[in-house]
Amino acid sequence: MVLRYWYLLRGSWPRLLELAYWPTVQMILWGYINQFMATSSGWVAQGGGVLVSAVLLWDVLFRGQLGVSISFLEEMWSRNLGHLFVSPLRPGEWLLSLMAMSLLRTLLGVIPAALLALPFFGYSVFGLGLPLLLFFANLILMGWSLGLVIIALILRYGMGAEGLAWIVTFMLAPVSAVYYPVSVLPGWLQAVAWALPSAHVFEGLRAVVYDGAMRWDHLAWAVGLNALYMAAAVGVFLYGFHRARVRGALLQTGE
Amino acid sequence: MTQRPPDPSAADPSVADSPTLLPPAISVEALTKRFDTPGGVVTAVDSVAFRVARGSVTGLLGGNGAGKTTTISMLLGVLVPTAGRVEILGVDMARHRHAVLARMNFSSPYVELPHRLTVQENLTVYGHLYGLTCVKKRVRDLADQLDLARFLNRPSGGLSAGQKTRVALAKALLNEPEVLLLDEPTASLDPDTADWIRRYLEAYRARTGATILLASHNMPEVERLCDDVLVMRRGRVVDQGAPSDLLARYGRATLEEVFLDIARAGTGPVGRDGLDGSTGGPHP
Ligand SMILES: Nc1ncnc2c1ncn2[C@@H]1O[C@H](COP(=O)(O)OP(=O)(O)OP(=O)(O)O)[C@@H](O)[C@H]1O
Ligand SMILES: [Mg+2]
After folding, report:
1. Residue B62 — φ and ψ, nearest 5°?
2. Residues on B contacting A at a C-beta cutoff of 8 Å
3. Subunit contact A82:B78, Cβ cutoff 8 A
4. How far is CA A252 from the centre of its chain?
5. Is residue B283 predicted with pLDDT exceeding 80?
6. Parallel, antiparallel, or unpaired: how do β-strands B104-107 and B179-183 relate?
7. What is the spatial distance between Cα A10 and Cα A255, in angstroms, rounded to a whole number?
8. Domain count, chain A
9. 3-state class (DSSP) for residue A117
10. Which of A79, A155, A243, A252 to mutate to test the pocket of ligand 1 (most atoms within 8 A of CB)?
11. pTM summary value
12. What is the pLDDT of residue A15?
């Protein structure tokens, strides 16, 4: 019932293309890097398509977060929040719709790229099987948590914080150990990395690619951390929302 | 707060079903809103109390910055009051607003609908949000009634101000609200359309027995539409009564003159109605 953000997407083909554009370009870029490095680096050669999988999964995290933040920003831009919150829509329902939209956007963006990896590099991420699904779920959850916190920040600091929507996830890339093992990071950064579900996911990904083994310990960490962060993010979101109702931000947001 | 008997002067005699048995459509007690701003604390609404009888059309008057929009926002629950209590249809808005939001609605030219969606899409989305069963039919009917059929497939953002206002009104009527809050419903409408909208609202009230509260700067409009008028100044309700009562009390021929009397009362030429006192003349 609340998924009508679909109209927003459906209404604009350029946006749909845009969704799939970056994942595809990134996939191709990293695919060639992968191919090139495979000729010179034993590590990459052994793990066929490790970088391609990594970039696609990284995009799941990024899209997941962006999907939530953008759907919210669209309401802000159109100064629609006032109408939305005098309707019987509950914040929780709205939250679910934001997540559903984010899932849709992510799938629309990443699946075409994943499919294109086949003709380009003869590599299929879907070969990862069940672990892929688990990785996907954990990354998108983490993306949602980030997205919710960003929404709270935008509600608090206004459109000035809008830029955060695009940069926060990127700031986490180095410590998420997307393309390299956590062990290359200096000690203290490793500690930071292990506090992120994403680092556990990418470490788990490499374990599957290299050893063909599913690291359940990493998965458990990722799930646990995600649960923690999601709870915190929902709390921050609801609190930010309440504060916006106190400050009167809902009726006058916009430019 | 204990239940007081409804103020008899606020009851509208034109409503047949006995409103005395039901709680008033809107009941506000000691409502206060202070904003923390960089320039200090602004008291936008200052311990306001009033009741709006079921089935009445009540006008909310006051100069720019008097606190009308702030009051309406608190009635809607999008703004949390600093103190005081709002009950709509007997429901405490601070606690159970979701129980009553589906029975009320709101329109303001200052809150917009997503620009990139067509009018039809926007209305459909809100139809679903309000849990209507036959959204399609309702949207079509409203489009006919409000003469929107020509715009249905155009993006909302591309409409003129007046057209947007009509679309916003259609949105506000989607759920046939029992309580309709309107912030300047005829701002930016041409006289013909504005008049047409007024007649539409009158007919809507007559047909459904809905309660309408409207903030307006258009005195003839208020005189014509409203059974009861609340006059605000500097965050307070400074007078209340039927338009005819107000005219008699102030010994004036038009509500416009009453408005000016009240707005200028005791304030002199500077710092007239606003709170900040910085506004010079009336806004255009
Ligand atoms: N979110 C806010 N933060 C700070 N101050 C606010 C906020 N909203 C309103 N105010 C202040 O509260 C006062 C009342 O504003 P309000 O919008 O309720 O007036 P109004 O009666 O609707 O005026 P107008 O006729 O111009 O629409 C004004 O002084 C305004 O500056
Ligand atoms: Mg106003």
Report:
1. 155, 155
2. 35-36, 69-70, 73, 76-80, 98, 101-102, 104-106, 108, 110-118, 121, 124-126, 128-131, 157, 171
3. yes
4. 29
5. no
6. parallel
7. 25
8. 1
9. helix
10. A252
11. 0.81
12. 54
Pairing mode, if any, of strands B91-92 and B40-52?
Answer: unpaired
Chain segment B137-153, per-residue pLDDT in tens: 999 999 998 888 898 88
Nearest in space to B92 (alpha carbons), one of B151, B28, B37, B145: B28
The answer to whether the CB of B65 is under 6 A from ligand 1 is: yes
Q: Which residue of B has its CA nearest to A4?
A: B125
- A88 with B112: Cβ contact below 8 A: no
Domains of chain B: 22-110+178-272 (3.40.50.300)
Residue B98: which of A88, A247, A252 has the nearest Cβ? A88
Indicate which ligand has the atom closest to the C-alpha of A247: 1
Q: For ligand 1, is residue B62 a contact (CB within 6 Å)? A: yes
Structure tokens belonging to residue A130? 């069940």
Q: What is the residue range of A40's domain? A: 2-252
Residue B41 predicted with pLDDT over 90: yes
Q: Do B125 and A12 touch (CB under 8 A)?
A: no
Nearest chain B residue (CA) to A242? B80
- Out of A11, A77, A86, the one facing B117 most closely (by C-beta) is A11
| Gap between the Cα atoms of B234 and B277, Å rounded | 10
Q: Of ligand 1's atoms, which has the minimum distance to the CA of residue A249?
A: 1
User: Do B14 and B202 contact (CB within 8 A), yes or no?
Assistant: no
Q: What interface predicted TM-score (ipTM) does this complex get? A: 0.76
Amino acid at B168: A
**Segments of B26-124 assigned E as strands:** 26-37, 40-52, 57-62, 83-88, 91-92, 104-107
Please list the pLDDT of chain A residue by residue as tens digits (255 residues): 444 555 554 444 455 555 666 666 666 666 666 666 666 655 555 656 778 888 888 889 998 998 888 888 877 777 778 888 888 888 888 888 888 878 888 888 888 888 888 887 777 888 888 888 999 999 999 999 999 999 999 888 877 778 888 888 888 888 888 888 888 888 899 999 999 999 999 999 988 888 888 889 999 999 999 999 999 999 999 999 899 889 888 776 433
Residue B4 pLDDT class (50, 70, 90 cuts): very low
Which amino acid would we find at residue A54?
A: A
Structural element, H or E, at residue B169: helix B161-173
**Tokens at residue B37, please?**
């701003």
Using a CB-CB distance cutoff of 8 angstroms, which residues of chain A are in contact with residue B106? 82-83, 86
Residue B12 is predicted with a pLDDT of 45
Q: Which residue has the tokens 């307006």?
A: B216
- pLDDT, position A164: 81
* Backbone angles phi and psi of B41, in degrees to 5: -85, 130
